[in-house]
Design a protein that fits this description.
Layout: H1 9-19, H2 31-37, E1 43-45, H3 50-54, E2 61-63, H4 76-80, E3 84-86, H5 93-108, H6 111-117, E4 139-143, H7 147-157, E5 162-166, E6 177-181, H8 186-189, E7 195-198, H9 212-217, E8 223-226, H10 235-243, E9 249-252, E10 272-274, H11 285-302
Parallel strand pairs: 1-2, 2-3, 4-5, 4-7, 5-6, 7-8, 8-9, 9-10
Helix pairs in contact: 1-11, 5-7
Length: 316
């Protein structure tokens, strides 16, 4: 077991050992210890690289330390290895969805303009109806209808919006979502959307998905919200679209480059809301992550199917 980033290593190790008494739980506090323990390990928590994996001949289960591991986690040797990989998807659903909807509402009510007036004490009332997105008459396109996308759809529908989903794995319509389509329909649906919300993980297919061509398919008044992964939106074309009035606004919690440089023009773009990758922040996350880890440890020891299995070739 590699130590969790929240420094609760011993607590987590004890909890896993209690959940699966038949497992001998060891903590690798450094790389040298990991290389010594991995040849006998049948399961591990953390991140591996090719050298560590080469010493993991008995490994059958790897619990990734996050919901959507970054590019490079699923390197070719790991994808080819028979080890099953699970992640922590689901533990952030409520926090990330609430953050996304807060950003959407802020854009819909033209709040970025007023936020920029506040430091200077400027009383300038913007009374043009065109500056407001009336949600009961809007179409919101949610790209990625997993746990987070489903929760976003439910919340936004409560404001009266028509919500359409795009997802490669599901065809059912969860609460609040009126239609769901495969990714092949994305370009057809983009021109209909008043808001596009991205909840996508970073995968080979999603990388750079929203560049100049896709942004050009959106309405000039449309709003873009990204709380998935920064690599899905190309910041150069996005900045140009905003500067040239070809997009109504953007709210981003994740970025191609993090931290976003202080000199980047997006910081000063008047129709943006930018937050520094904080949508996941909220109470109970360590407890939820530990619960997933312990449940999977119990299942692994009992020979049962694991939860949150990942398709390694797709990275999620």
């Amino acid at each position: 077991m590699l130590p969790p980033s929240d420094q609760l290593t011993e607590t987590w190790a004890s909890a896993v050992a209690e959940a699966a008494p038949s497992l001998d739980v060891e903590v690798a506090t450094d790389r040298e210890t990991a290389l010594r323990l991995l040849p006998e390990a049948v399961a591990a928590y953390g991140s591996l690289d090719p050298e560590l994996l080469s010493q993991s001949g008995n490994l059958r289960w790897l619990q990734a330390p996050m919901a959507a591991p970054p590019a490079g986690f699923f390197f070719p040797e790991l994808v080819a290895h028979p080890v099953e990989v699970t992640n922590f998807r689901g533990v952030y659903n409520d926090h990330v969805a609430t953050h996304a909807v807060a950003m959407l509402l802020g854009l819909a009510r033209n709040l970025p303009v007023y936020m920029r007036q506040q430091p200077t004490g400027t009383w300038d009332r913007h009374l043009a109806d065109a500056d407001i997105l009336h949600l009961p008459e809007s179409t919101v396109l949610v790209i990625g209808v997993g746990g987070i996308g489903t929760e976003i759809g439910r919340m936004v529908a409560a404001f009266g919006a028509r919500v359409i989903g795009i997802d490669p794995r599901r065809s059912d319509c969860p609460e609040g979502i009126t239609e769901i389509h495969p990714p092949a329909q994305l370009d057809r649906l983009l021109p209909q959307a008043d808001v596009v919300v991205l909840t996508l993980p970073h995968t080979p297919e999603s990388e750079g998905m929203f560049g100049a061509e896709r942004l050009a398919l959106m309405k000039p008044s449309a709003l873009l919200v990204n709380i998935g992964r920064g690599a899905t939106v190309q910041l150069g074309p996005l900045t140009e679209a905003l500067q040239q009035g070809r997009l109504g606004g953007a709210a981003l919690d994740v970025f191609e480059e993090e931290p976003l440089p202080s000199t980047h023009p997006l910081w000063r773009e008047p129709k943006t809301i930018l937050t520094p990758h904080v949508a996941v922040v909220g109470p109970y996350i360590p407890e939820r992550r530990l619960a997933v880890l312990c449940e999977n440890a119990r299942r692994f020891a009992a020979g049962e199917a694991l939860t949150n299995l990942v398709d390694k070739s797709l990275w999620y």
